[in-house]
Design a protein that fits this description.
heterodimer, A: alpha/beta, FAD/NAD(P)-binding domain, 2 domains, seven-stranded mixed beta sheet, five-stranded parallel beta sheet, B: alpha/beta, Glutaredoxin
Chain lengths: 305, 105
């Protein structure tokens, strides 16, 4: 029986593991990816985490992990498929037929890339459809690509790809971009980026690999010949596992303030999966710490050891 | 450590290899590629007698990636007698790799 099962090994989960170890609680981190460190690993450079200016995201994640490991944190690779509460305790069912018993749960499962949900997206994944411009950009030297989205990630991807590809269509459903002004200025000053506004993606065509993206603009459909499609339309919270157990907002984020306390007794939410204004490493790390304190208070109040 | 191959020696190192070859098409600053790398290191040691494991950086040798229609990193392609047998892409689990290797025999 664990005092705390921490779900997720990003900055929030790692911070919770660190605080749990320091508090002398029996805790384990369950992570879906072996040796994971969460989404921060994909950031090229993190310039706003205090004390570590200019660190790249991958190395920052590794530092978090090493810190937790050095304090003796335990990790399990696996996916939790069901959480059941009985007699004030939680049973967490893993996908390998094993189960964990816990007095409390710190849920820090983060977010994932939002999908377009159009025909061709899943079929051509890895064959022209990508969610990672940094990973796959180099395959498109002197080719034509489309970036879908209007936020910082989409415009950042477009700028990165403009240095490799011959032409970059930047397709956005609204009449203006949401990205920061610096990125917008960069996009406007880059000749081979072609913004296409007020357009939605209808489908992605291709046999063995992507050949065209079909858009709907001003009521008419048009196929743009492209070799690759980079999807950057934000993220959705990984809250499906717990949404029957506790309150989530209209976008699926778990409703909780900075204490991490949710509507379910003994489940605490930390990191990007929680309702909050600013989703950053620094706020995720703070959440992990707060959740351990909340879990500790809950244990002291509710459970006789 | 899997050796790096390039466009120049791909023919001799991969296509004309006596043993089946696992080629890891990876790119720089690609997180799933970094995560996969220690797993491939283990595979190389465990199958040292029956499998050759190499990697190819698509930032430098994009012509090979293009030739084999590799569009995502990481993509792992298995070759036997110069012919592609199967491929896996993304951060695959070790069990998926060993299954593919068993199927080569």
């Amino acid at each position: 029986m664990y005092d705390i099962v921490i779900i997720g090994s990003g900055p929030a989960g790692m911070s919770a593991a660190i605080y749990a170890q320091r508090a002398g609680l029996k805790a384990v981190v369950v992570e879906k990816e072996c040796l994971g460190t969460g989404k921060i690993a994909e950031s090229q450079r993190v310039d706003n985490y205090p004390g570590l200016f200019g660190e790249n995201g991958y190395d920052l994640g590794e530092r978090f992990r090493t810190h937790a490991e050095n304090l003796g944190a335990e990790f399990i690779e696996g996916k939790i498929i069901k959480i059941v509460r009985s007699n004030g305790e939680y049973t967490l069912q893993l996908d390998n037929d094993k189960a964990l018993a816990a007095k409390t749960v710190i849920y820090a499962a983060g977010t994932q890339c939002r999908k377009l949900g159009v025909v061709g997206e899943q079929e051509l994944l890895g064959r022209g459809v990508s969610y990672c411009a940094v990973c796959d950009g180099a395959f498109y030297k002197n080719k034509v690509v489309a970036v879908i989205g209007g936020g910082d990630t989409a415009l950042g991807d477009a700028v990165l790809l403009s240095g490799l590809a011959k032409k970059v269509y930047l397709i956005h459903r609204r009449d203006e971009f949401r990205a920061n002004k610096t990125l917008q200025n960069k996009v406007n000053g880059t000749k081979n980026i072609v913004p296409i506004l007020n357009a939605t993606v209808q489908k992605i065509n291709g046999k063995d690999h992507v050949e065209a993206v079909v858009i709907l603009q001003n009521g008419s459909e048009k196929a743009l010949a492209v070799d690759g499609v980079f999807v950057a339309i934000g993220s959705t919270p990984n809250s499906a596992l717990v949404k029957e157990l506790l309150n989530v907002d209209e976008n699926g984020y778990i409703v909780a303030d900075e204490t991490g306390v949710t509507s379910a007794d003994g489940i605490f939410a930390a990191g990007d999966v929680r309702t909050k204004k600013l989703r950053q490493v620094v706020t995720a790390a703070a959440d992990g710490a707060n959740c351990v304190l909340s879990a500790e208070e809950y244990l002291n109040k509710n459970i006789q050891c | 450590m899997p050796a790096r191959v390039n466009a120049e020696n791909f023919d001799t190192e991969v296509l004309k290899s006596d043993k089946p070859v696992l080629v890891d098409f990876y790119s720089d600053s690609c997180v799933p590629c970094k995560r996969l790398s220690p797993v491939l290191f283990q595979i190389e040691e465990e199958y040292a007698d029956s499998l050759k494991v190499v990697k190819l950086n698509i930032n430098f040798d994009s012509s090979v990636a293009e030739q084999y229609k590799v569009y995502a990193a990481p993509t792992v392609v298995f070759f036997k007698n110069g012919i592609e047998q199967t491929r896996l892409h993304g951060l695959v689990k070790k069990s998926e790799l060993t299954e593919a290797i068993e199927n080569l025999k």
